[in-house]
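Lecture 7, part B: from sequences to assemblies.

Below are the input chains for today's worked example.
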Amino acid sequence: MKIGLLVNEGPYQHQAADSAYRFACAALAKGHEIFRVFFYHDGVNNGTRLMTPPQDDRHIQQRWSELARTHGVDLVLCVAAAQRRGICDPDEAKRNAKDADNIAPGFRISGLGQLVEAAIECDRLVTFGD
Amino acid sequence: MAGQCKKIMYLHRRAPYGTVYAQEGLEVVLIGAAFDQDVCMAFVDDGVYQLKAGQDTSAVGMKNFSPAWRALGDYDVTRLYVERESLDERGLREEDLMPLRYEDENDDWAEKSSIVIVDRKEIGRLIDAQDVVFNF
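Predicted structure of the full complex, as structure tokens:
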């Protein structure tokens, strides 16, 4: 089955990011395709490489980046939500005259059309959040 | 994706300014309109406050995004189901909501209301009939 995921909540604050990650791993292990993971609302905070959790805790961003590296999962941050929350890639940083970017490996920034496309293309769109 | 037409519902459940879900949810509806799908919206629980007429956010310093609802008709989002019980529970009536209208191209462009008041059971039936439910 072709599956799209929507993550609507930030890391550590809310279980959504953990549940979505575990769901993605389980689905891949069963042979399903994860077409895309779209991060919206505070979910875009999953994609900052600056997050520094204590060493005895899970590293939510690195987990996602590893999933992208090993399984080629498409991790997309909503551009409008990311701009509001200070998440940017080198292009966005330049366009908005910021002195740095903070996007993590394996993530990309794009528009909400990517979410709607996933909803249309996939057999299931699974939402993680309240 | 060409030729695919899915039944998509945007289900709005939260008050408009306490959290960002309503505002960012509306952004998905407006972008999604470009994809030519079979779209409707439903407003339940505190989500019915999103359509209240006369919203004024000046005292809280937040952007009043409610005028954007009036553009929905131009985006061909013309079915806005509002749950009757949610209105009743909050002391609201249909007259308290913004008058949202669209021009029906199948009826000589007659102007019609986009808002349809339905009961809780009907909302459940509508959700069940969708291919995709976006939940904000």
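Note for the exam: The longest strand of chain B covers residues 7-12. Keep this in mind when comparing with the next example.
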